[in-house]
Specification:
The chain has about 160 residues and is mostly helical. The chain is about 45% helix and about 5% strand. A two-stranded antiparallel ribbon has the order 1-2. The longest helix has 18 residues.
Length: about 160
C-alpha cells in the first residue's frame, strides 16, 4: 500500500514529452488500470480510445488547440506520442465522476511505470463537434448507449 500512497503523493503533470512511441504492452497496462476504476452502480460506462496514429493525434491536437483558443502552432498534448481519450455517456448520472476516476487511475498507473502524463481537457467539446462525431463514427462508436444487461439471479438473500 505504501507504493500506492507514494505514487499519489509524487505524481505530477508533465508538459514536455519525448516523441518516442511507447510499447503497446505499456500502453495496455495504463489502459487496464483505467478499466478497474470505480464507477456508478458498477456500470463501467466510460470508454477509452487509445490514439497512437500520428495523423489522428495531430488532428485532435489542432481541434483541442482551436477550442482552447491558443495560437495555431501550440500543441496542447505537449508532443506526447500517445493520447488516451476517456468518454462516457452524458445520460448516465455519474458520467463525469466515472470518467474522472478512469483518468485518475491511468495517470497513477503511468507514474508507477515511469511514464509522464497530463490531464488535457476539452475532449467533450472535441467529440461533440461534427468533426469529432465523424471520428467516433469511423470507429463504430455512434454515441448510442447500450442496454443495461440483465441482472444475475440469486444475488439477494433475506434473513428474517
Amino acid at each position: 500500500m505504501d507504493e500506492v500512497l507514494k505514487a499519489i503523493k509524487e505524481r505530477r503533470s508533465i508538459r514536455k514529452f519525448k516523441s518516442d512511441m511507447l510499447p503497446k504492452e505499456i500502453i495496455d497496462k495504463v489502459i487496464e488500470s483505467g478499466l478497474y476504476a470505480a464507477s456508478g452502480k458498477g456500470q463501467q460506462s466510460p470508454i477509452i480510445i487509445s490514439v497512437t496514429n500520428k495523423e489522428l493525434r495531430d488532428k485532435l491536437s489542432k481541434m483541442n488547440c482551436k477550442i482552447g483558443g491558443w495560437k495555431e502552432d501550440f500543441d496542447p498534448f505537449y508532443n506526447a506520442p500517445v493520447v488516451l481519450i476517456v468518454l462516457a455517456p452524458k445520460d448516465w448520472p455519474t458520467y463525469i465522476y466515472d470518467g474522472s476516476l478512469v483518468i485518475g487511475n491511468m495517470m497513477l498507473a503511468a507514474h508507477s511505470l515511469n511514464i509522464g502524463s497530463c490531464w488535457i481537457h476539452r475532449a467533450k467539446q472535441e467529440f461533440e463537434s461534427e468533426e469529432g462525431k465523424e471520428i467516433l463514427k469511423s470507429l463504430g462508436i455512434n454515441g448510442e448507449y447500450p442496454n443495461v444487461p440483465a441482472r444475475k439471479e440469486n444475488r439477494v438473500y433475506y434473513i428474517d
